């Protein structure tokens, strides 16, 4: 994979298979990066806030270079097909969200029915071939239709997350494993990791 300039094939290869979800994420990433004037981030120049943990997030990671490990991919799982792209360099930010009136059924009324038959193992050979055709046609439509037909794009002014911090590590007094200072717990004068410390709650 050319990490400097990935394409859709790279996205599919990383995700493992072609699907509408990863295609939506791919298109959203391209739109978001263009709107904020960003290129793929080698470090934390670009920040992406994703609002679901579904297929499209994989595409966003590949295209933007935003990752959990670098601290510039932030998951706020509201179960929504929406992504916010923030360019730290120029301060621009946009939120790209799937239109509420555009669904897989509206784009291709036959797709879900065929998909269900294929997944259940009940599809005939003809139906399996039809499913593959519809899948590719649907994904191509998502990639090529005018952005405004599939997405709502708005400039936003989110609170820009601070850059990732590197914390000191401590050794858990119970399991002996290393734990980040930011996640360590002090229990009876001993430094413990969260699993060993247990979780304090008040019943709710």
CATH architectural arrangement of the largest domain: 2-Layer Sandwich
How much helicity do the residues have? Answer: 25-40%
Number of helices: 8
**Helical/strand content category:** alpha+beta
Overall pLDDT metric: 91
Shape: globular
| Main sheet record | 5 strands, mixed
Pick out the low-confidence regions: 200-204
Q: In CATH terms, what is the fold-level topology of the largest domain?
A: 60s Ribosomal Protein L30, Chain: A
Going across the major beta sheet, what is the strand order? 2-1-3-4-5
Taking all Cα atoms into account, the compactness measure Rg is 21 Å
Tally the beta strands: 9
Distance between the termini: 47 Å
Percent range for β-strand residues: 15-25%
Could you say how many structural domains there are in total?
Answer: 2
CATH class of the largest domain: Alpha Beta
Question: Overview of this structure, please?
Answer:
The protein is an alpha+beta fold and 204 residues long. It folds into two domains: 8-155, 2-Layer Sandwich (60s Ribosomal Protein L30, Chain: A), CATH 3.30.1330; 165-204, Wheat Germ Agglutinin (Isolectin 2), domain 1, CATH 3.30.60.20. Helices cover 37% and strands 18% of the residues. The protein has eight helices and nine strands. The chain has helices spanning 8-15, 20-36, 56-64, 104-107, 111-120, 125-144, 147-150, 194-197; strands at residues 46-50, 73-75, 82-87, 93-98, 151-155, 169-171, 178-180, 185-187, 190-192. The strands form three sheets. A five-stranded mixed β-sheet has the order 2-1-3-4-5. α2 packs parallel to α3, α2 runs parallel beside α6 (125-144) and α5 packs across α6. Residues 200-204 have low confidence and may be disordered.
């Amino acid at each position: 994979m050319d990490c400097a300039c990935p394409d859709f094939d790279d996205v599919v290869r990383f995700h493992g298979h072609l699907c509408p979800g990863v295609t939506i994420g791919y298109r959203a990433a391209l739109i978001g990066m263009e709107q904020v004037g960003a290129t793929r981030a080698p470090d934390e120049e670009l920040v992406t806030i994703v609002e679901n943990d579904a297929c499209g997030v994989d595409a966003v990671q590949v295209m933007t270079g935003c990752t959990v490990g670098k601290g510039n991919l932030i998951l706020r799982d509201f179960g929504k097909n929406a992504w916010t792209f923030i360019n730290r360099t120029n301060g621009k930010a946009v939120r790209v969200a799937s239109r509420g009136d555009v669904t897989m059924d509206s784009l291709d009324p036959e797709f879900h029915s065929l998909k269900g038959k294929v997944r259940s193992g009940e599809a005939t050979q003809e139906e399996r071939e039809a499913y593959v055709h519809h899948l590719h046609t649907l994904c191509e439509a998502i990639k090529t239709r005018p952005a405004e037909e599939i997405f709502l794009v708005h400039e936003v002014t989110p609170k820009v997350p601070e850059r990732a911090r590197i914390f000191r590590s401590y050794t858990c007094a119970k399991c002996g494993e290393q734990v980040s200072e930011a996640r360590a717990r002090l229990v009876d004068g001993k430094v413990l990791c969260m699993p060993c410390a247990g979780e304090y709650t008040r019943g709710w």
